[in-house]
Amino acid sequence: MIQGGNPFFERRSHPRVETKAGIYVRYNSYSTRIGEVKEMSLGGLSFQYSESAYEVGEPSELDLFSDVDDSFLGRAPFETISDSKVEPKNSIIDDSPRRCGVKFVDLTSKQLARLKTFIFDTAADPKSVKYC
């Protein structure tokens, strides 16, 4: 249901923050599947990758890390909400990446505290971080 008749009403409980370049997600701690985080919040994140699709609704854990500094958050439980192909810039070659959206589920208070720090440390504009 659209609130107030506004089709652009934000349904997320937590506003998403754009991340700096060099922030990555590894799907499961033992996987080689890595994607680049585009935006994140206390509720979830989206990332872009170039492999086969993730199963929507499949619960799992992920690691977040930065190649810029020591920021790391390991084994955060999540559920895949969406996974779709990004429109190719060149219609002749269809090697376009995919974008995946996930929501965090059942974070412990310690994981939530570390996530807050991770978001602040990796935000493209730390002034845009509004939570608590």
Quick overview:
The protein is built from 1 helix and 7 strands; from the N terminus they run E-E-E-E-E-E-E-H.
Keywords:
Thrombin, subunit H, 7 strands, single chain, 132 residues, 1 helix, 6-stranded antiparallel beta barrel, mainly beta
What's the topology here?
Elements: E1 17-18, E2 23-27, E3 34-40, E4 44-49, E5 59-66, E6 72-85, E7 98-104, H1 109-122
Antiparallel strand pairs: 1-3, 2-3, 2-5, 3-4, 4-7, 5-6, 6-7
N- to C-terminal distance: 27 Å
Figure out the total of helices. Answer: 1
Structural class: mainly beta
Number of strands: 7
Rg for CA atoms: 15 Å
User: What's the arrangement of strands in the largest beta sheet?
Assistant: 2-3-4-7-6-5
How much strand?
Answer: 35-45%
> What about the largest sheet?
6 strands, antiparallel, barrel
Overall average residue pLDDT: 82
Which percent bin holds the helix content? 10-25%
CATH superfamily: predicted glycosyltransferase like domains
Tell me the series of helices and strands, N- to C-terminal. Answer: EEEEEEEH
Q: Output the CATH class name.
A: Mainly Beta
Looking at the overall shape, the CATH architecture is Beta Barrel
* Low-pLDDT residue spans: none
Do you know the CATH topology?
Thrombin, subunit H
Shape: globular
